[in-house]
């Protein structure tokens, strides 16, 4: 499993997001708030950490390479430019 994730850091970020979100989802109700007391708010503040990982996940999905590419000349953000000619140009 980890062999498949090695080149796909965006998958690791997504997996971490899901792992962190499960306790938040399980405790986002009134009975859990009563039972956890003051610790409930600390647990729910983990939402900010999750949002940071969401931003990282989207950047990695878009082609952001935090440590450079394999050959060292990676472009930080990919552009969505199509190399196919448009339909009007082929007529």
Please supply descriptive tags for the structure shown above.
mainly alpha; elongated
Description:
The chain is mainly alpha-helical and 91 residues long. The chain has a domain at 10-61. The protein contains 5 helices and no strands. The longest helix has 18 residues, at 9-26.
Mean pLDDT score: 76
- Helical amount: 55-70%
Q: What characteristic shape results from the CA principal axes?
A: elongated
Segments where pLDDT lies below 50 for 5+ residues?
none
Overall structural class, as computed from helix and strand content, comes to mainly alpha
Report the end-to-end length measured between terminal Cα atoms: 48 Å
- Count the DSSP helices: 5
Largest sheet: none
Cα gyration radius (Å): 20 Å
How many strands? Answer: 0
Q: From N to C, what is the helix and strand string?
A: HHHHH
Strand content: under 5%
């Amino acid at each position: 499993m980890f062999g498949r994730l090695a080149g796909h850091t965006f998958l690791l970020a997504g997996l971490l997001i899901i792992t962190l979100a499960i306790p938040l989802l399980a405790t986002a109700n009134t009975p859990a708030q009563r039972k956890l007391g003051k610790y409930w708010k600390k647990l729910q503040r983990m939402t900010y950490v999750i949002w940071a990982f969401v931003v990282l996940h989207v950047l990695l999905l878009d082609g952001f390479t935090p440590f450079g590419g394999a050959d060292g000349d990676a472009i930080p953000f990919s552009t969505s430019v199509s190399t196919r000619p448009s339909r009007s140009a082929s007529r």
